[in-house]
Amino acid sequence: MITINALNDVFPILIQGIKITVSVLLASIVLGYLTAFVAGFCRLSKNVILRKITGFYVEVFRGTSLIVQLFWLYYAFPILFGIEVGSNFWAGVLAISLNYGAYMSEIVRGSILSVAKGQTEAATALNMSRFQRMRLVVFPQAVRMMLPEFGNYLILMLKSTSLVSLIGMTDILYYGDILRSSNLSQAPMVYLLVLIFYFILALPLIWLTRKLEGFSKKGVASQ
Amino acid sequence: MNEPMVKFKDVHKSFGDVEVLKGINLDLMPAEKVAVIGPSGSGKTTIIRMLMTLEQPTSGSIIVDGENLWQMEKSGRLVTANEKHLRQVRGDIGMVFQHFNLFPHMTILQNCMTAPIHVKQENKASAKARAIEMLDKVGLGDKLDNYPSQISGGQKQRVAMARALVMRPKIMLFDEVTSALDPELVEEVLEVIRDIAHEGRMTMVLVTHEMEFARDIADRVLFLDKGVIAEQGTPSEVFGHSENERLDSFLRRFRR
Amino acid sequence: MNSWSWEVFFDAFPAVLEGLGITISLTIACYLFALVFGFGWTFIRRIPIKPIRWLIIWVMEFIRSTPPLVQLFFIFYAWPMVPVIGVALDPFTSAVLGLGIHYSTYIGEVYRSGIENVDSGQWEASTALNFSNRQKWTKIILPQAIPPTIPMLGNYLIIMFKEVPLASTIGVLGILSMANDYGAQYWRYLEPLTIVAILFLILSYPSAILINRLEKKMNRRFDKKTVLGRMNKGKGAVM
């Protein structure tokens, strides 16, 4: 079944999709983390309205399914507001980053809240301003708590990029589907290869997550 | 010399329905060393936490070096102080905590350099020299690059003192600084406080359970009970024979 | 552009709702599969032969870090083409296998952390009382290991519910399929997709609150030696 010849046919086609998969992933990571921090800080803000609005966003995106959000952004959003999201690329990136941004904003918020109260007090006793307390004392410790969780979300985001094939983006899975429909008997090898592609992309992320876990164990208050 | 450094005027503090301080009137003179003793829950810690601006009084006022700490004037009226005002007034106050509260993500040296650099805008070199000087003084000149997790509790508390001292406070507050320590580590911390006290320049308030130590270094001892200063005087007055029954029974528990 | 129409909304609502039964039953089937299969992972990765344990850990890692969507396609499209062992499966069964296996690797980790959090003294005590190996597990270890993980397992039920619409891509007729069909038929996607989103929100939000409460209750009961307690470390930590 899996002959070297067939592999030679399949491999070069699949590899064309890597560029899309990786660029969707990178854009989603950047935008996702950005959303996480902005929303996380908004939920800790003194402004009630800001807090409520962000709370609503977080609950809606955590309460519905990513694939539903993707379809909604791609098919429904342009109808409702009469504007296109731009392209299927942006629909995909927005769905992934808004979805995981909502989850990760909870990590941002939770980590900041779980820095020991004594830390803020000590910083106050040293006469630091509110901003200095956050920047020099609380945030550096909170980030160390966030990192391992953030690492796990990298892998979740990678996996979710496969959804963009459903809105017509030419990622790895899209080419896999094309190959399968042209020759069904190739399907096992095609999908196995697709899985291996994703796994290879995941390996550095897995490695990074382990590193981050090690790093975060070092510098946080625990006794 | 006659103007008090700190003045508490009829200060009350409630947490929810519980009133922990019921009218505190207190003058702290420059360079005076005051020990605050009393049963737990009597509000000792709350007094110094209000002075450090960690807790806001429910009523009354605290005057620090002539400035009203918790209130400020705004278009002719007294209003609750904002962050800027608090920062202005509390700059002369330093505090050492029961649980040290060292910054775990910084080395010992960084713990002592961060505030001078960012709060007082000192340049790095002089802040570093000053930090090393103070760490030497507390006997930790050889631990500069260690992290707090790598040193003992007694050492942590000494770092915490150096960290407060680099800010050159006029008033130092000590909140039960030895009660989280293993017994064998208590003495090294008290030793450092004794040194600082003997230098004499700072006003010091020590909330403590170490009666011997309080007798040693304090000019004045306050006995706090049920939210009021129930008794005060020189160490020999307070620790000698007192008419106050509650103080008597409190002290007897320590003599055993 | 024609925007929101309540008429379409009410017309589409029953059509979409028709898929809810399938969505919910698929969720439960996948979840039960993952719960049971998760145990399998937990136990085979305790096999005391290093190469085998190592292999199992990597297989789990592989399943966990590759997209469930591709795994679904593999089972649905590719499995029947595999010589000798391959069989054709209907969409529902494929989805149960695909999502069930994918999430069993996560659930296996939950079990594992629960077991690792049982105090080692418990093993020693049960040895001292001369329990058999089987009795140690069923009478001592598991009864302590599993209850603290219940809120986390509950979370996975909600996660599963939100993953199930992936199965629409291989033709399981859940609410998302119904909405897409309606959209394709009348060229109206806005209302049916919004209905799907609302249904998800209505069902998952209260469950999330419920699990949150359960978690707090459990935390109080099991104090800090549990998985959840461990996750909450840092709170109140001092230095």
UniProtKB/TrEMBL annotation, chain A:
Classification via SUPFAM superfamilies:
MetI-like
Which named protein is this? Ectoine/hydroxyectoine ABC transporter permease subunit EhuC
Q: Which CDD domains match?
A: TM_PBP2
Q: Where in the cell is it found?
A: Cell membrane
Q: Name one GO biological process term.
A: amino acid transport
Where are its TM segments located? 20-44, 56-77, 89-108, 153-176, 188-208
Bilayer topology term? Multi-pass membrane protein
| One Gene Ontology term, aspect cellular component | ATP-binding cassette (ABC) transporter complex
Organism lineage reads as: Bacteria, Bacillati, Bacillota, Bacilli, Bacillales
PROSITE patterns annotated for this entry?
ABC_TM1
To which protein family does this belong?
Answer: Belongs to the binding-protein-dependent transport system permease family.
Q: Which UniProt keywords apply?
A: Amino-acid transport, Cell membrane, Membrane, Transmembrane, Transmembrane helix, Transport
Record-annotated ABC transmembrane type-1 domain positions: 14-207
UniProtKB/TrEMBL annotation, chain B:
Question: GO MF terms on file?
Answer: ABC-type amino acid transporter activity; ATP binding; ATP hydrolysis activity
> Looking at the Swiss-Prot or TrEMBL record, what is one Pfam family this protein matches?
ABC_tran
* Protein name, UniProt field: Ectoine/hydroxyectoine ABC transporter ATP-binding protein EhuA
Q: Is Cell membrane among this UniProt entry's keywords?
A: yes
- Claim: Nucleus is one of the keywords in the record: no
Species whose genome carries this gene: Virgibacillus oceani
The cross-references to CDD domains, in alphabetical order and at most eight, read: ABC_HisP_GlnQ
Q: What is the top-level taxon of the source organism? A: Bacteria
Q: Which UniProt keywords apply?
A: Amino-acid transport, ATP-binding, Cell membrane, Membrane, Nucleotide-binding, Transport
Instruction: Please give the InterPro entries that the UniProt record associates with this protein.
Output: AAA+_ATPase, ABC_ATPase_HisP-typ, ABC_transporter-like_ATP-bd, ABC_transporter-like_CS, Ectoine_EhuA, MetN_ABC_transporter-like, P-loop_NTPase
Family to which the UniProt record says this protein belongs: Belongs to the ABC transporter superfamily.
GO CC, one annotated term:
plasma membrane
Q: How does it sit in the membrane?
A: Peripheral membrane protein
Residues annotated as domain ABC transporter: 6-251
Compartments annotated for it: namely: Cell membrane
PANTHER family membership: AMINO ACID IMPORT ATP-BINDING PROTEIN (PTHR43166), GLUTAMATE_ASPARTATE IMPORT ATP-BINDING PROTEIN GLTL (PTHR43166:SF9)
Automatic annotation (TrEMBL), chain C:
Question: Can you tell which superkingdom this protein's organism belongs to?
Answer: Bacteria
* InterPro entries in the record: AA_ABC_transptr_permease_3TM, ArtM/GltK/GlnP/TcyL/YhdX-like, Ectoine_EhuD, MetI-like, MetI-like_sf
Alphabetical UniProt keywords: Amino-acid transport, Cell membrane, Membrane, Transmembrane, Transmembrane helix, Transport
Q: How does it sit in the membrane?
A: Multi-pass membrane protein
Please, one GO biological process term? amino acid transport
- Membership in a protein family: Belongs to the binding-protein-dependent transport system permease family.
Give the residue spans that cross the bilayer: 20-43, 55-79, 85-103, 156-177, 189-211
Q: What GO CC terms are in its UniProt record?
A: ATP-binding cassette (ABC) transporter complex
Q: Gene3D superfamilies recorded for this chain?
A: MetI-like
Write the protein's name: Ectoine/hydroxyectoine ABC transporter permease subunit EhuD
Q: Which GO terms describe its molecular function?
A: transmembrane transporter activity
Q: Where in the cell is it found?
A: Cell membrane
Which Pfam families does this chain map to?
A: BPD_transp_1 (PF00528)
Q: Which residues form the ABC transmembrane type-1 domain?
A: 20-211
